[in-house]
């Protein structure tokens, strides 16, 4: 049986990642494919507004793609009853290629018996000595696993007992883990390893639809579907795929795709916005039955309300990780209608950024405080990259901050100059 394809956006998902994954999974379904949208993290306020407006439930969250013991356990391997005879135990070992046999009492895991200890009992039989019982030979295993443990922790040699809530479940081995069919995963709105859900090396990446730079070293075992376009939003590419396939975009999906375009292009203000994004938005708005400007402003406002976020949450908002030269750094972003409140608590925000930077040993942690109204960004940061920032933007860094008028896009206006300065 082939596994259902997971369609996912990036970690710290934004509206494009959430909505494009839902929309692309839906297109796959409408074309008869077994695909489902998942998400890499919590949904932000802007996306929540869009989902609620169009009455769509958020997709389930998946925190990693590691093969679990639960996927590999052989539940058909029955345990020996604790009242079993030594002969039953001998039969068990004859039937199973294992050095240990699990022993259970009405499903409760009791312990394991060793093949070698059983052999000793048969030597005793020959010698006419008194014999032990299965129950008395049972002891705690050196190592055992639970269903949610990672399969890659099962040692290469030997068979191991799997229990759950002290109940015997089955046995597992490294080969069982290796034989588990990989989870097919379709990436939208990202391709850099650091932004993919953890454990992607144990999954099977089957496709990528994206509008970001190609970064990092995503490698696959076979040929895959790849569609990259330098447009403002993944949703614009997905809209094109519906058209190409001749599939009518369902109303609520059109609404979500529109929300993604509005979000990524900041209502067409961002320099990343292309004529293709605008054209798509016009079509999507008529399908969704909303006024772009009115709906767009309401949605952006919902996302721009950071008044109830803690400094830690703001420091992590829409965070992405990057590497360049020998530096690793993060760039978070908040988009607000008015930057005054946030700039008033700049020192607190920098402390929160620094805490995060230290915890993961990043060289720097940046926060873009972007004003939707002024179409500008105050870039603040923690870490020792003042010289890099200064040369990237041709400005003096004043107290861990540079003011960047006409800058709204991390992808187009922040990441490239920093990476260039690191070269
Ligand atoms: Mn995007």
Describe this structure in words.
The chain is an alpha/beta fold. The protein has three domains: 5-64 and 182-304, inorganic pyrophosphatase (n-terminal core) (Alpha-Beta Complex); 69-177, Roll (CBS-domain), CATH 3.10.580; 311-422, Diaminopimelate Epimerase, Chain A, domain 1. The protein has helices at residues 15-30, 45-53, 69-72, 86-95, 115-127, 134-137, 174-178, 234-245, 251-264, 275-288, 292-304, 311-316, 340-344, 346-359, 386-393, 410-422, and strands at 5-8, 35-37, 80-81, 100-105, 108-114, 144-146, 160-164, 167-172, 183-188, 203-210, 225-228, 320-324, 327-336, 364-371, 376-383, 401-405. It has a five-stranded parallel beta sheet with strand order 2-1-9-10-11. A five-stranded mixed beta sheet has the order 12-13-14-15-16. Strand 14 (364-371) and strand 15 (376-383) form a beta hairpin. The protein is elongated, with a radius of gyration of 28 Å. Residues 16, 189, 211, 233-234, 264 line the site of manganese (II) ion.
